[in-house]
Fold this protein.
Amino acid sequence: MEKSSGAATGGSAPPPRFDMEDFQLEGKKPVKNPFVPIGALVTAGVLTAGLISFRYGNSQLGQKLMRARVVAQGATVALMIGSAYYYGDQIKLFKKGSSP
C-alpha cells in the first residue's frame, strides 16, 4: 500500500499566525480599583497558607487562616460592589420607567 502525504491530497493547512494585537480585549475597561486584584491575591495567599498549615497538622493556625480568608474574601467582594457603585456601574434592579 502506498501512503500519501496529507498536503498533497488537500490535508489541513498550517495554523494561522497570531499577533499580540489579535489578543487585545476590545471593549474591556481597565482596572479602576487596584484593591480588587490585590484583595483576590491576598485571599488566595491566605487560603494557600491555611491549606498548608492543615497539611502539616497545625489545625489551630489553619482555622485562624480560614477565618482570615473569609474576612479577606468579604472585603474583596465589598470592594467590588463599592467600586461598581462609585464608578456608576450599578446593577439595574428596576426596569426603565419604574420607581424604586
In short: The mean pLDDT is 75. Helices lie at 35-55, 59-86.
